[in-house]
């Protein structure tokens, strides 16, 4: 099928999940990642893995297709991505950081860090990243569900890379 992304033809984007609580969110991120042609997923800390039946169920089989691995800490994951010369970007609600649409995600390789549903990304982890971006929120609530936020951001990244 024309335009279909295969595992041999993926965008150089790795998503790092730092201590996500919800197996549903993790499974949803697997589905979104496969759909958009994302390189791989790194699960850190107590983030559920596809061995968890709820994660696997929510992933709807994409946990069998998407490359993933577990690492003990987000620090290790960030260090690994930097060693691969990937730019590490935190998706977080930080005052003064650019919106995802005004940030140019580097096509040479990018790792996107997503934080815990309740606490976000720890400030010490944000400081390890090369950049921080946010999704503009106009409602009373200043943040989105992590799986929804990831879908929006990953789509923007792949949109930018598809048009550049």
Automatic annotation (TrEMBL):
Q: Sorted alphabetically, which InterPro entries does this protein's record hold?
A: Alpha/beta_knot_MTases, rRNA_MeTrfase_TrmH, SpoU_MeTrfase, tRNA_m1G_MTases_N
A single GO BP term for this record reads: RNA processing
Instruction: Give the GO molecular function terms.
Output: RNA binding; RNA methyltransferase activity
Q: What is the lineage of its organism?
A: Eukaryota, Cryptophyceae, Pyrenomonadales, Geminigeraceae, Guillardia
Question: Does the keyword section mention RNA-binding?
Answer: no
Q: Does the keyword Methyltransferase apply?
A: yes
Tell me which UniProt keywords the record has, alphabetically.
Answer: Methyltransferase, Transferase
Q: Which organism is it from?
A: Guillardia theta (strain CCMP2712)
Lineage: superkingdom: Eukaryota
Name the UniProt record assigns to this protein: tRNA/rRNA methyltransferase SpoU type domain-containing protein
Give start and end of each tRNA/rRNA methyltransferase SpoU type domain: 13-155
């Amino acid at each position: 099928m024309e335009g279909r992304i295969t595992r041999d033809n993926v965008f150089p984007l790795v998503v790092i999940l730092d201590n996500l609580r919800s197996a549903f969110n993790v499974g949803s991120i697997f589905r979104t990642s496969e759909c958009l042609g994302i390189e791989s997923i790194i699960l850190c800390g107590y983030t559920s893995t596809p061995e968890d039946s709820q994660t696997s169920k929510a992933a709807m089989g994409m946990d069998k297709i998407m490359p993933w691995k577990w690492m003990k800490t987000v620090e290790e994951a960030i260090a690994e991505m930097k060693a691969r010369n990937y730019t590490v970007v935190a998706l977080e609600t930080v005052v003064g950081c650019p919106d995802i649409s005004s940030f140019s995600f580097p096509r040479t390789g990018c790792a996107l860090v997503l934080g815990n549903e309740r606490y976000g990304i720890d400030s010490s982890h944000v400081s390890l990243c090369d950049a921080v971006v946010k999704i503009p929120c106009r409602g009373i609530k200043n943040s989105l569900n992590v799986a929804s936020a990831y879908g929006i951001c990953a789509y923007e990244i792949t949109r930018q890379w598809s048009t550049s």
